[in-house]
Each structure stands twice: as structure tokens, then as C-alpha cells.
Amino acid sequence: MNKLLIVGTVAFDAIETPFGKTDKILGGAATYIGLSASHFNVKSAIVSVVGDDFPQEYLDLLTSRNIDISGLEVVQGGKTFFWSGLYHNDLNSRDTLDTQLNVLADFQPKVPQDFKDADVVMLGNLHPLVQSSVLDQMEKQPKLVVLDTMNFWMDCALPELLDVIKRVDVITINDEEARQLTGEYSLVKAAAKIHTMGPKYVVIKKGEHGALLFHQKEIFFAPALPLEEVFDPTGAGDTFAGGFSGFIAQSENVSFGNMKNAIIYGSNLASFCVEKFGTERMVTLEKAEVQQRLQQFKALTQFDIVLEK
Ligand code: AMP
Asked: CB 3.0–4.6 Å: which of 38, 51, 113, 153 could bond 65 by disulfide?
């Protein structure tokens, strides 16, 4: 079975949307990526850190999804990373109210020996130095390295972020962050600038407006499924990244054509994530529901225009 190595935060989140409010619940980029990637036939592991305030029941949830957590360090006496966000009425934009790095502040990641030859490495949102350190520990060049990041790291660790961006094949980033990173308003120009920073493939996520995949002069667009109920977009980007990287790891095909399917899988899984608060929906999600919604994606985008000669 192919191996997927996942790096990212495992966190407590406090979220407020127009539909409600939660106190500290399970969150974190690696958590969402792992739950999403568990829908594929891959062997996955998370590299991250939590404090001893992190409940055993959350660790059990990850292992119940066949996620290897031997690289998830538990710091005795430490506090888990905490993030709090407030969504605006359109649910497409949010304000970060609080970010407490806690145990993440001096985290030294250790890649489990069994994953130093992982086929795909998904560098989820976390300090760029931690992302780089994971790449340094790989003993075999992965077939694909994917990176996700956030404006927080552009604000506080830009040189380190630019260093790790140089080393990856694919970057997934949202539209606002792509504009911040490049200073370009046009997403086509922003993607072109990001290509010159290193990644051959650039995925720009546009929330409820879908996602764009850029590779040299080629562009592909995947819509987001129009949903009746959207409660909480937290983790949608990470769930997308988990679907993207999980699908690529399973299919062993890193061509542009296959990446189109990967962004459809990512969008499909993300469409479930937003239906409930936090990880709640991803925890109950069944294979049959995933397949059924893929049909809806197909129907949404298929058309048969005959082009005039
Ligand atoms: P998304 O909605 O996909 O951007 O991801 C939200 C998740 O990212 C939440 O569960 C947070 O715990 C986590 N998160 C928020 N801020 C950061 C940060 N600066 N670095 C890493 N993870 C973060």
C-alpha cells in the first residue's frame, strides 16, 4: 500500500459562525487532512504535537481511522495549539481571533522510520521550519510533495516559508493568500508568480467558488458543489488537501490529468466537511455518500457542446 505522510497542526478550535458557536473542539490542519485521506486506500501517518491536555478519545479517533500517530508527540505539561475564528455572514471570509502556538512554539518534528520513504508528503498548515525539517528527514525523494499554508505564516515567517515553497511540487493556497504572497490581484498572474517560486502545480482555493489548478499554461477549474446547508467552513481547505493528496497517493499518478481528478475528490470531501461544525461530519461520513456525491459533481460539470468548425 502506498504511504502518505501528513504534517500539520492537531489543535483545539473555538469557532463562531452565523449559525452557532463552539467551545474548544477537535481541529487542526493534520486532523482534517488525516480524516479526509482515510477515505483512500493508503497508509497514512501524522507528524505533529499536542499537549497533555489533549483527550485520549481524540487520539483514539485518529487511530480508529488507521492513521499512524507514532509521530504525534505528546508534551507532558504542555498545552495544545489553540485557534479561534469568527466567520462573516457570507461564510467565505473569516477573522482569526486568537492563535496560541503553545507546544508548537518549539516543536522538533520526528518522522517515523517507516514513513521516511513515503510516496506522497502532505505538508499541511504549520510553521514552515517544521515543514522543511520533515522534508530534510526523508530518506527517499517522494513522488509528490504538496504544501498548504496560511496568511499567519506569511505575516510571521515569510523567508522560511519561501524556502520551503522552493522545495515542493504542488502548493494549495486560498485566493486571498495567493494575492498576499504575490502582490498580484489577478489569480492567473498570481499563479504564474508562484510557479517561479518553485511549485510546478498551483492550486488556488476559492471557497464556495471552487478551486483552480494551474500548470504552466494549462488551467483546470473544479466547482464547489452548491449546498443547501453550510454550517462551518473550518477545515474545508485541509479536507480538500487531504482528498487531493490521498487520491494521488492511492493512484500513484502525478500527471496533470490525474490532478484534475484529485481536485474533484478534494472538493467533494470538503463539501461534506462544511455541513456540520468542526470534524463532526467527517467522522460519520460513509464511502457510499462520497461516491454518490461524486456523481453529482459529474452531473454539475458535464456538458456536450458541439464546437463549430
Ligand atoms: P482551514 O479552514 O482549512 O484553513 O483550516 C482551519 C484549521 O487550521 C483549524 O482547525 C485550525 O486549528 C488550523 N489553523 C489555524 N491557524 C493555523 C496556523 N497558523 N497554523 C496551522 N494551523 C492553523
From this structure: 38
